[in-house]
Design brief:
The protein is α/β, with parallel strands linked by helices and about 400 residues long. The protein has two domains: about 10-290, LarA, N-terminal domain (Rossmann fold), CATH 3.40.50.11440; about 310-395. The protein contains 13 helices and 16 strands. It has helices spanning about 20-30, 65-75, 95-100, 140-145, 165, 175-180, 195-205, 245-255, 265-270, 290, 320-330, 335-340, 385-395; strands at about 10-15, 40-45, 80-85, 110-115, 120-125, 135-140, 145-150, 150-155, 160, 210-220, 230-240, 280-285, 310-315, 345, 360-365, 375-380. The strands form three sheets. Strands 1, 2, 3, 4, 7, 8, 9, 10, 11 and 12 form a ten-stranded mixed beta sheet that branches. It has a four-stranded parallel beta sheet with strand order 13-14-15-16, with helices on one face. The termini are far apart.
Length: about 400
């Protein structure tokens, strides 16, 4: 079963600091876990364990929320219950699990923690795909009877918000995640292709249920934070439903966004994945108007303009390395930038260096720079995470 969508979708919103009580109430309001989990089902719970930082940052899902979801799922007698993740490109999933102290944490409750990077990969066709014609994803995720997306509630510098729909990127192998960022490098098909790709992904494997962990949310962007994070927000809210688009709509509305400005939400509605119109959503529980808070928008504005003697030169390439370079540099202190001295950051292939940069130190960011014909210090990755760019610039 892939989920339940009617002429009107139900989404529950519960305010409260008690994690177990709030999550259980949110699921009870929409009819309970038994509506999607049947005895003998294979169930994959997909949290956001993308980087190894504390859940107090709001960058990742609180493991305590996942524990409650595991316990609730067990009450429906599934055949196999898994908690699975594949981290952000450039991070090691096994190391992130270790950093988060997850070993044995879900097993004691009856669920298996799965490093999806160690799973088999299947390739499937994307029916009427907007930008993707084929999709590679992990077999355990594709073959699960039920997927429950359990994202944290946060803004994101590339997609405005990161909620349930975007959280599904964690069922993809790294090479597919890279493709989603590299669509249009050689030939542009549509504008906002990453957001179209997120909708394509959810059209192939749509979560059966989404439960947004808004206990500690995250807003804006703070230079140097892992996972392109911002500032923690104590929000103490859970949002849940069977329609993944409607849940993201309510989540983004609570964060002060007009849901129709979130492009991947609109594209997902266009793909008939769910409802993006608030008029087609019954909100159960708390009044969203009373809880709504304007989250700070994520932006690099104001932190990009003074890199001392460092020049950025970009050739043909994707958005990933450009964002990684800017995020890495913006997270450095003035003294750290001064220590680098005069330097050129090269991104992409087919690069012509300005005459005034000749003879300066060269940093080659990303694997595309292999085709630039230039020699310099390589910062490998496709793309390298911003924190890795920063470490390399500091000589680590």
């Amino acid at each position: 079963m892939t989920g339940i969508i009617r002429s009107k979708s139900q989404v529950s919103v519960v305010k409260g600091s008690d994690i177990e009580s709030s999550v259980r109430t949110a699921l009870d309001l929409i009819g309970g876990i038994q509506r999607i989990v049947k005895p003998g089902d294979t169930v994959l719970i997909k949290p956001n364990f993308s980087v190894g930082v504390s859940s107090r940052t709001g960058v990742i899902t609180d493991p305590r929320v996942v524990e409650v979801v595991v316990e609730i799922c067990k009450e429906a007698s599934p055949g196999r219950l898994m908690v699975g993740e594949s981290t952000v490109v450039g991070f090691n999933t096994a190391q992130v699990f270790k950093d988060l102290g997850l070993k044995g944490r879900f097993e004691r409750l009856g669920a298996v923690l799965v490093n999806l990077d160690e799973d088999e990969i299947v390739e499937v066709t994307v029916p009427n795909g907007s930008v993707l014609k084929k999709l590679q994803l992990f077999k355990k995720a594709y073959e699960s009877d039920v997927i429950i997306s359990v994202p944290t509630m946060k803004t994101h510098i590339l997609t405005e918000v990161s909620l349930g729909l975007k959280n599904m990127k964690g069922i993809l192998p790294d090479r597919m995640k890279k493709i989603m960022h590299r669509i249009g490098v050689k030939k542009k098909v549509k504008e906002y292709e990453l957001e179209h790709a997120i909708a394509d992904l959810n059209s192939v494997k749509r979560p059966s249920m989404t439960i947004i962990d808004g206990f500690i949310a995250n807003e804006g962007y703070e230079p140097g934070t892992p996972g392109i994070g911002g500032t923690p927000v104590e929000f103490n809210t859970v949002v849940a439903g069977f329609d993944p688009v409607a849940v993201d709509v309510v989540g983004s509305y609570l964060m002060g966004f007009d849901p129709m400005e979130i492009r991947h939400i609109v594209f997902a509605q266009d793909r008939k994945i769910g409802f993006a119109n608030m008029g087609q959503i019954d909100v159960l529980g708390a009044r969203v108007e009373d809880l709504r808070r304007k989250f700070k928008r994520p932006s690099l504005e104001g932190v990009l303009f003074d890199f001392k003697d460092i020049v950025i030169v970009a050739g043909n390439g994707c958005s990933g390395c450009r964002e990684a370079t800017l995020i890495g540099l913006s997270g450095m202190t003035e003294s750290e930038l001064e220590a680098i001295g005069k330097a050129v950051m090269v991104i992409g292939s087919d690069v012509d260096l300005p005459e005034e940069t000749k003879g300066q130190r060269i940093f080659l960011v990303g694997n595309c720079t292999l085709n630039s014909g230039l020699k310099g210090k390589r910062i490998e990755g496709c793309p390298p995470p911003g924190i890795h760019v920063k470490k390399c610039l500091k000589g680590h």
